[in-house]
């Protein structure tokens, strides 16, 4: 019985860790979707990749494209001693 409870607790912790690591899903609407590919197109902000397009579909009688993207804004840490200048 105790082993079952411990296994359940470990499984629940792993599940919540996975949920915590996933980014926020946003929806963006464009008048044109040229070059946007689900699973391949990156979302960038100030030159840094902060997400990726997950789904692309047409809306409003094929007049617009709606894009679902996963955004991950976790800060990236860069160590100055690992950088090379010049």
Structural class estimated from helices and strands:
alpha+beta
**Strand adjacency order, main sheet:** 1-4-3-2
Helix/strand order: HEEEE
Overall helicity = 10-25%
Shape: elongated
Identify low-pLDDT runs: none
What oligomeric state do these chains adopt? single chain
Largest sheet: 4 strands, antiparallel
Terminal CA distance reads 62 Å
Structure description:
- Keywords: Cell inner membrane, Cell membrane, Membrane, Transmembrane, Transmembrane helix.
- This is Paraquat-inducible protein B.
- Pfam families: MlaD.
- InterPro entries: Mce/MlaD, PqiA-PqiB_transport.
- With 86 residues, the chain is an alpha+beta fold.
- The protein has a domain at 24-75.
- The protein is built from one helix and four strands; from the N terminus they run αββββ.
- The chain has one helix at 2-21, and strands spanning 24-30, 42-45, 48-59, 64-71.
- Strands 1-4-3-2 form a four-stranded antiparallel sheet, with no helix packed on it.
- The longest helix has 20 residues, at 2-21.
- The radius of gyration is 20 Å and the shape is elongated.
Q: How are the secondary structure elements laid out?
A:
Blueprint: H1 2-21, E1 24-30, E2 42-45, E3 48-59, E4 64-71
Antiparallel strand pairs: 1-4, 2-3, 3-4
Pfam family, one: MlaD
Organism: Mannheimia haemolytica (Pasteurella haemolytica)
Keywords: Cell inner membrane, Cell membrane, Membrane, Transmembrane, Transmembrane helix
Which descriptors apply to this entry?
86 residues; alpha+beta; four-stranded antiparallel β-sheet; 1 helix; 23% helix; cell inner membrane
């Amino acid at each position: 019985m105790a082993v079952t409870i411990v296994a359940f607790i470990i499984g629940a912790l792993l599940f919540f860790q996975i949920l915590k690591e996933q980014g926020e899903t946003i929806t963006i609407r464009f008048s044109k979707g040229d070059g946007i590919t689900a699973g391949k197109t990156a979302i960038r902000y100030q030159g840094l990749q902060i997400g990726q397009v997950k789904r692309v579909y047409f809306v409003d009688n094929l007049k617009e494209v709606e894009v679902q993207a996963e955004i991950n804004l976790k800060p990236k840490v860069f160590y100055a001693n690992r950088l090379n200048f010049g």
